[in-house]
Amino acid sequence: MHAAPRLDETAHMTDSADTRVEPPYTGDERQQLTAFLDFLRGTIAHKSAGLSEPDAHRSVLPSPLMTVAGLLSHLRWVEAYWFDVSLGGQPNRAPYSAERPDGEFEIAAELSLDQLLADYAEQCARSREVTAAMGLDDTVAFRGEHRLSLRWVLIHMIEETGRHAGHLDVIRELLDGVTGE
Q1: H or E stretch including 139?
Q2: Which region ranges are annotated with the description Disordered (predicted)?
Q3: Fewer CB within 10 A of the terminal residue: the chain, N end or C end?
Q4: CATH class given for the domain over 54-176
Q5: Which three-class secondary structure state does DSSP give residue 80?
């Protein structure tokens, strides 16, 4: 059974085992940006689901940090930084620092795949709340004298999430041969 389209009837669905909703072919800028980001967030969850714990934490690329678990943790904290900290003005609670720049990847070894998926889903829900409360052109002070808009954050998160979805494509295929969108 397919999920109901979120934005309009022009949304196209993926196969029945996949709960992602493809972005609609029409809609305003906000609808398009949030729908593409949500599709990519769903892709991250879809590519990560169904792995064994050892496979979720196993590195198949030269970097020992590039695991499914590591990428889920990284993306959870990237969402938190841009939406909660940068746009929302919340304190940064991330497990990384100047002394431990890969902390979000490193803590993934201590967390189950189910916990990582749940943390990512929870953070994405909080990010959607921040997004819903702002206009695309709303800005906040950022890194000194700069201004940061919701539009910039959404575009950046589409890029960041899409890039890591590509990493998950490669990692998943190397782990168990699963390919596809």
Answers
A1: strand 139-142
A2: 1-26
A3: N
A4: mainly alpha
A5: helix
Polymer length of the chain? 181
| pLDDT for residue 17 | 64
Q: Are 47 and 63 in contact (CB under 8 A)?
A: no
- Whether 113 and 53 have beta carbons less than 8 Å apart is answered as yes
Q: How many CA atoms lie within 13 A of 120 on its CB side?
A: 30
Tokens linked to 5: 């389209």
| Encoded tokens for 158 | 């589409």
Query: Mapped to the 3 state alphabet, what secondary structure does 24-53 carry?
Result: CCCCCHHHHHHHHHHHHHHHHHHHHCCCCH
Phi–psi pair at 89, nearest 5 degrees? 70, 15
Q: Which residues of the chain have pLDDT under 50?
A: 1-16
pLDDT in tens, 10-43: 333 344 368 899 999 999 999 999 999 999 999 9
Here the tokens at position 61 are 């690329």
Residue 142 parent element (H or E): strand 139-142
Distance between CA atoms of residues 177 and 181, nearest Å: 13
